[in-house]
Design goal:
Layout lengths: L2 H22 L10 E5 L30 E5 L7 E2 L2 E2 L8
Antiparallel strand pairs: 1-2, 3-4
Length: 95
Amino acid sequence: MITRPLAITALALGALAAGSAMAQDKPMADKKVAMEKCYGVSMAGKNDCAAGPGTTCAGTSKVDYQGNAWKNVPAGTCATIKTPKGTGSLTPIKS
């Protein structure tokens, strides 16, 4: 009859381990990802803000990959974004 207490103990320890693992994980929505401005990667009308002269704010870029229009992207990824006009830039691109 030793197997019954052993099984109950094993089940209890498993539940505690699972509970502590779940308590340590935070949902992805709670984790803030560092962002940076990436110029020259947004599509027309899809920029985040301040697209240079002739524009006021978000969604005002006139052409795809406008050099002075930016999108917020995860930090460290801007220079790896490839477009038909080259890669993204951390500074405005002269058109």
